[in-house]
Write a structure and sequence with these properties.
heterodimer; A: 300 residues; alpha/beta; 4-stranded antiparallel sheet; 9 helices; 12 strands; 24% strand; B: 223 residues; mainly alpha; MetI-like fold; ArtM/GltK/GlnP/TcyL/YhdX-like (chain B); transport (chain B); transmembrane helix (chain B); amino-acid transport (chain B); MetI-like (chain B)
C-alpha cells in the first residue's frame, strides 16, 4: 500500500495519523445513535452553473446523524459552492437538497420550480449552523452580543436567557473571559471560535464549516480544530470543507474528494489517504505530502 | 465710516429671533432630510427596478437644479399644482427634499460598505432582512458615513440663507434688512458670517464627538 505516494525509496510516515478505520470507535466516546441511524442531509443530483460554467455536476451525498464528512479538493473544485448550497447561500439549480427530509430553497409549483419564500427557507435551515472562512462576525457587537443576537431576534429569548445561553456557548469554546471584547480585539482563532459559538447557540442539528482555518495564522489553527474535534466527539453532525488533511484523517468518518465540480472519490480516511486509486486524487495528495514532509529532506 | 456695534444692541431682539428661525428651519430640514434620505436609500438598495428607476430620476433632478430655483418652485409655483404652503413649512420641505437626496446617496454607499459575509451570517441564523438593516448595517455604516453626514448637515445650515427669498424671517433676511435700513452693511454682513460660523462650528464639534463615541468598537484596545 501507499506506493502511490512514495515514488520508490523508503516510505516516510504520513505527517498525519490515519489509523482510524471507521467512524467514531477510536475517538474517545462512542457516537450518539438515538435509536436508528437517521439521515440529516440528502443531496441528489445537485448541480449549479455560473453562466455557462457548470461548477457542480450531479452531486449525490447523504450525511447521517453524528457523521463527520470532510470535503477536500483543489481550489475551484466546487467544494465551497457545494457547502454554501447546503445553506442555500448559493442557489443550486439542479437536483434536490433535503435537510431532515425537507426540500431546501425551492418549492415545486405547477409552473415549475420557484424560489421558496424566505420564511420557508429559514424554517428548513433552522437546524443548520454555518461557519465561514472569514468568520463574518459583526464588528460592532461584543463577542457575547454576536452570540446572543439571533437568540434575541429570531428565537425571541429574553435578555437574561440569551445571555445565559450565550455565556455557556462562549465557555464551551473557551472564551468566557472574552465575552465583552469586540471582534477587533480578538485574534483570528478567537474570532472563529466566537463564530462557532454563535452558530452553536441556535442548537443546530448539523454544522457546516467553510474552510474554517484557512484565514488563520498557522499557530492559531490548532485551537479552532480542537473545538471542532470536541464537537465531533459530542456527536455533532458536521460537513467540513478543509485543507487540513490531518483533521480530515483523524476526525472524519468519510472524506470526499471533489474535482471540477464532481465527486471523484469518497471513502474512509484510510481509503482516501492510503489507498487512493484515482490519478487526480493521487496527484492532489502528492502535493500535500511534498509540502508537509519537508523534514525528511532536512540538511544535516 | 467706522464700525458701529450699537447696530446690534439696538436690534438684539430681531437678530435673536432670526437666529432661532434659522436654527429651527435648519434642524427640521435636517431631520426631514435624514428620514427621507434613509427611505430613498432603503428603497434603492432593496427595491426592484420599478422602484429604483423613478428614484434615480428624482435624485438626478434635485441634484442638478439649484436650490434657489427649487425653493421658488415649491413656494411660488406650488399653488398652481394645488399645494399652498406657508413660508416656513415650504422652506423646511425644500430643505428636506434637497438634503434628502444627498443623504440618500450617502446612506446608499454606507449600505454597500458593510461586508456581504456579515449579511450571509445573519441570513443563515434566520435574521430577517429588516432586522439586518437596523441591527447590523445601520450601526456600522453610521460610523463610516458620519463625516459625510456632518458635512452635508453643515451645507444645509448655510443653504438656509436661501430661505430669505420666500420671506422667512431667518438670520440672513433679518440682518440684510437691518443693513438696508441703517446702511451698516459691513457690520451686518460680518455679524451674519459670525452667526453661521457659530452654527457650523457647533455642528462639526458635535460630529467629532460622535465620531469618537460611535467608532469605539473599531479600536483594538480594550475599553
Amino acid at each position: 500500500m501507499n506506493s502511490l505516494l512514495i515514488p520508490g525509496g523508503k516510505a516516510p510516515a504520513p505527517p498525519y495519523e490515519t489509523t482510524r478505520e471507521t467512524t467514531r470507535k477510536s475517538l474517545d466516546e462512542p457516537m450518539k445513535t438515538n435509536g436508528e441511524q437517521s439521515t440529516v442531509l440528502t443531496l441528489s443530483q445537485v448541480g449549479k452553473s455560473f453562466g455557462n460554467l457548470r461548477v457542480l455536476k450531479g452531486i449525490e451525498l447523504q450525511v447521517q446523524r453524528s457523521e463527520v464528512v470532510c470535503l477536500i479538493g483543489p481550489s475551484g473544485s466546487g467544494k465551497s459552492t457545494l457547502l454554501r448550497s447546503m445553506a442555500f447561500l448559493e442557489e443550486y439549480d439542479e437536483g434536490e437538497i433535503r435537510i431532515e427530509g425537507q426540500l431546501l430553497g425551492w418549492q415545486d409549483t405547477d409552473k415549475g420550480r420557484r424560489r421558496a419564500p424566505q420564511s420557508q427557507i429559514n424554517q428548513v435551515r433552522r437546524n443548520v449552523g454555518m461557519v465561514f472562512q472569514q468568520f463574518n462576525l459583526w464588528p460592532h457587537m461584543t463577542a457575547l452580543g454576536n452570540v446572543c443576537e439571533a437568540l434575541r431576534r429570531v428565537r425571541k429569548f429574553s435578555a437574561d436567557e440569551a445571555k445565559k445561553r450565550g455565556m455557556a456557548m462562549l465557555e464551551k469554546v473557551g472564551l468566557g473571559h472574552k465575552a465583552e471584547a469586540y471582534p477587533a480585539q480578538l485574534s483570528g482563532g478567537q474570532q472563529q471560535r466566537v463564530a462557532i459559538a454563535r452558530a452553536l447557540a441556535m442548537e443546530p442539528h448539523i454544522m457546516l464549516f467553510d474552510e474554517p482555518t484557512s484565514a488563520l495564522d498557522p499557530e492559531l489553527v490548532g485551537e479552532v480544530l480542537q473545538v471542532m474535534k470536541t464537537l465531533a466527539k459530542e456527536g455533532m453532525t458536521m460537513v467540513v470543507v478543509t485543507h487540513e488533511m490531518g483533521f480530515a484523517a483523524q476526525v472524519a468518518d468519510s472524506v470526499i474528494f471533489l474535482d471540477q465540480g464532481e465527486i471523484v472519490a469518497r471513502g474512509t480516511p484510510r481509503q482516501i489517504f492510503h489507498n487512493a486509486e484515482q490519478p487526480r486524487l493521487q496527484q492532489f495528495l502528492q502535493n500535500y505530502l511534498d509540502r508537509n514532509a519537508f523534514w525528511q529532506d532536512a540538511k544535516p | 465710516m467706522t464700525f458701529d456695534a450699537s447696530i446690534f444692541t439696538d436690534h438684539l431682539g430681531d437678530i435673536g429671533s432670526g437666529f432661532l428661525v434659522t436654527l429651527g428651519t435648519w434642524s427640521s430640514g435636517v431631520v426631514l432630510g435624514l428620514a427621507l434620505g434613509m427611505l430613498i436609500a432603503v428603497a434603492q438598495v432593496f427595491g426592484n427596478n420599478l422602484v429604483r428607476a423613478p428614484l434615480r430620476v428624482f435624485i438626478e433632478l434635485i441634484r442638478s437644479t439649484p436650490f434657489l430655483v427649487q425653493l421658488f418652485l415649491v413656494y411660488y409655483g406650488g399653488p398652481s399644482f394645488g399645494i399652498s404652503l406657508d413660508p416656513i413649512p415650504a422652506g423646511i420641505l425644500g430643505l428636506g427634499v434637497y438634503g434628502g437626496v444627498y443623504f440618500a446617496e450617502i446612506f446608499r454607499t454606507g449600505f454597500q460598505s458593510v461586508a456581504r459575509g456579515q449579511l450571509e451570517a445573519a441570513d443563515c441564523l434566520g435574521i430577517t432582512r429588516l432586522q439586518c438593516v437596523w441591527r447590523i448595517q445601520v450601526p456600522q455604516m453610521l460610523v463610516m458615513i458620519l463625516p459625510a453626514l456632518v458635512n452635508m448637515v453643515t451645507v444645509l445650515c448655510k443653504e438656509t440663507a436661501v430661505l430669505s427669498i420666500i420671506t422667512i424671517p431667518e438670520l440672513t433676511m433679518v440682518l440684510t434688512g437691518i443693513g438696508s435700513e441703517t446702511f451698516a452693511f459691513v457690520e451686518t454682513l460680518l455679524m451674519l458670517c459670525i452667526g453661521y460660523l457659530i452654527l457650523v462650528e457647533l455642528c462639526s464639534r458635535l460630529g467629532m464627538l460622535l465620531e469618537t463615541r460611535v467608532g469605539r468598537f473599531m479600536s483594538r484596545q480594550p475599553r
